[in-house]
Amino acid sequence: MDDFDPRPSDQFTFGLWTVGNPGRDPFGEAVREPMAPTHIVAKLAECGAYGVNLHDNDLVPFGASAAERDRIVADFKAALEDHGMVVPMATTNLFGHPVFKDGAFSANDPKVRAFAIRKTMDAIDLGVELGASTYVFWGGREGTEADACRDPREGIKRTREAMNFLCEYVRDQGYDLRFALEAKPNEPRGDIYFATTGHMLHFIETLDHKQMVGVNPEVAHETMSGLSFVHGVAQAMEAGKLFHIDLNGQRIGRYDQDLRFGSEDLKQAFLLVRLLEGTLGGERYEGPRHFDAHAYRTEDEAGVWDFARGCMRTYNILRAKARAFDADPQVRELIAEARDEGVQALTRSYSSENAAALRGLELDPAGLARRGLGYERLDQLMCEHLMGVR
Ligand code: GCO
Ligand code: MN
Ligand code: MN
User: Fold this and answer.
1) Is the minimum distance from the CB of 89 to ligand 1 under 6 angstroms?
2) pLDDT tens sequence across 22-70
3) Which compartment or compartments is the protein found in (predicted)?
């Protein structure tokens, strides 16, 4: 055990579907045996995780009888209890069954939409029974290949109706549960509605109970399309809407790789951890650090636990690096912002006096433009911290 080995207080969580991923892909069969959810709970606890998250059907198979469901849930709860693990987040599988081939909440057939909402109500009941306080919505099938099939505005409206309906359901049951919406640009659909965290943030503002809805951004999903994940997360945090986060590794322009956290683009991973931990001084993210990733297809079960420990250790190492970076006097000097309270006060808010004073202000654009900002030194310092020589 060293300083970077995970502890429950780090609040690391994994989905049953992540470490339980058997390595099936569009070109090949599973390479690992399925693992029982109770076994996953025991092994994750041994690795130092805090909790485990699940889709309804990760635990209770589709179509199980009520008696079967209750038996499975009781066994699972006993395993959680035995190993001191919690279920902070739950979600619905609205993508696996062929009934969702045209979408779930946005499908053209109202019977499919009704089935999706009913399945989600049941899955919310399950999540709450297991103690979840966050409920994730990832609309993997909510999109199109043949865009002529509907007016895309209908897809958006139907999703709003479903969200409003389900928010009311949660309120009606008296559940203490918040929703977190997860964006993805494509895969498995050609194009998915609400492609980015930014799209989701706006959509949330149009909901009836927007205060109970936030986002669940995923590293891979913004990175696939070449966007800055750190900027998307920052916007969510600034809006008070970062309710959950899916951490993994991804290279730009590829299919959703779901790699071990930090295994690609360490610099972005560092900047993300720095943001979440608030080492620069901003507010810290207090929710669980969830890994939505899976082990390489080359691995056996031992490799899966190496993968899980790797995600958590990398996060902890980056947290230590972020603290050291933001405490480095050279870094602090380089990022110390110019302070001129008088000038700042003028543009903080509009008044006709401020506007008039602004017109009269002595400003020297050529002089301001000539100054070098030292960002080459700053970025090199960051690289040196990351490379372990500072
Ligand atoms: C994906 C998604 C999913 C969701 C999960 C929880 O690309 O497959 O990231 O893993 O996060 O369904 O809603
Ligand atoms: Mn994903
Ligand atoms: Mn995800």
Assistant:
1) no
2) 999 999 999 999 999 999 999 999 999 999 999 999 999 999 999 999 9
3) Cytoplasm
Pocket perturbation via mutation, ligand 1, pick of 95, 119, 138, 184 by most ligand atoms within 8 A of CB: 138
Residue 197 near residue 203, CB atoms below 8 Å:
no
pLDDT digits 0-9 by tens, 271-286: 999 999 999 999 999 9
Say how many Å lie between the CA of residue 314 and the centre of ligand 3: 19
* pLDDT surpassing 80 at residue 1: yes
Angle between helices 375-387 and 301-327 (to 10 degrees): 140
Which amino acids are annotated catalytic? 55, 58
Map out the domains of the chain as residue ranges: 8-327, 329-386
Q: Taking the complete model, does pTM exceed 0.85, yes or no? A: yes
pLDDT tens for each residue of 68-90 = 999 999 999 999 999 999 999 99
Ligand nearest to the Cα of 95, by number: 1
Q: How far apart are CA 60 and CA 52, in angstroms?
A: 15
| Cβ–Cβ under 8 Å, residues 173 and 121 | no
8-327: CATH number: 3.20.20.150
